[in-house]
Amino acid sequence: AALLTLTRKRGAATYAQTLQNIPETQVTTLENGLRVASEESNQPTCTVGLWIEAGSRYEDAKTNGAGFFMEHMAFKGTKKRPGSAFEKEVESLGAHLNAYTSREQTAFYIKALSKDMPKVVELLSDAVQNCALEDSQMEKERGVILQELKEMDSNLTGVAFDYLHATAYQGTALAQTVEGTTDNIKKLTRADLASYVDTNFKAPRMVLAAAGGISHRELVDAAKQHFTGAPFAYKGDSLPALKRCRFTGSEIRARDDNLPLAHIAIAVEGPGWADPDNVVLNVANAILGRYDRTFGGGKNQSSRLAALAVEHNLCHSFEPFNTSYSDTGLFGFHFVSDPLSIDDMMFCAQGEWMRLCTSVTESEVTRAKNYLRNAMVAQLDGTTRVCETIGSHLLHYGRRIPLEEWDARISAVDARMVRDVCSKYIYDKCPAIAAVGPIEQLLDYNRIRSSMYWIRL
Predict the structure, then answer these.
(1) Which residues form the Peptidase M16 C-terminal domain (predicted)?
(2) Model pTM?
(3) Per the residue annotation, which of 59, 71, 269, 364 is the catalytic one?
(4) CATH 3.30.230.10 for the 251-451 domain, yes or no
(5) Staple 47 to which of 36, 226, 383, 445, CB 3.0 to 4.6 Å?
């Protein structure tokens, strides 16, 4: 009975109390520029990770794929620990390690018991600055990556988004895929990977983040011990700046009538990470909603576009997106439909875009804001999600933005603001379009462009 009472009390915290009771994020910057950030809690476990401002945008045409290749090699052995020894040491801790690479950031993180935090920091440092890059391991991972590239070709959603970047940012680094080309993966050498690490894995571009039952002071002490060596130092006044990636309204069509469904992605240029318009655009996307045929609700869904999709059998699924980068972004939607429904679905979706610009209502905005608040609080689930939030925020914004501040920004959005900001980014803009599959019914680009505004009398 006492346990049940305790459980009820723990679950009775209000939304406002939850926002106020989040532990403070402590940040310390070391002399070499490395930022060490943590959120302390009473968890028996912790997640410690290294978030690095590096990815495919920092590669050129010849080295595209080096970051993704390095992600595969990071935990395959170091100069101190051969591959098998590294894996056994991680397993002896009962730890779980992972990594990912995107267009603008790379992350390596380990989840372990809180008492093992100093050892985890040492393992991360060793993996990043002392990666062995043995020839035998490189050839093994080369084969793994080539197989992954083949499998990615069957993920038509991923293909559509890669094409969308290729046409929206043609001729720039953002047009490149994260994984690189097959030819590049076959040609990349140990020297290429070593050069990529030496150029990009520098302390001013790195955040050592941690969340869970750890002490910030102990984390800083461990960082000073393992992350102040020569490999992390940067000689010079500043790191090379990113080249501007300009958005181009254009399209890529990859027609294949042997495929059963069409994948269409359309986007306009959105703002960069730090732009306050992002909050308003996220509210707008929540108004559009998302849909999949597996959802219940039928025609009674709160999203007007979802209700139309059900009533007229427009698509199998759709989802809006707001993908941000340092200085630009892609704001749009992606849908999967039968070949004969493409035109109708595109017409309805663009019509909803125009409605966001002209006649969205306060009740829709209220519902969308509640949806965003729910998604925001979900970031508190588990030390790994909190750790990723800390690392990503420090790279994107220079600080971790408290949830109370996010909530205040969301609360400030009203229907007029949604109409104004959507008009700024959507109304009468040239979109980028990527289409894959049986897309004969997709209208000419100029016809789609003409639906980016309404003639109002």
Answers:
(1) 187-371
(2) 0.92
(3) 71
(4) no
(5) 383
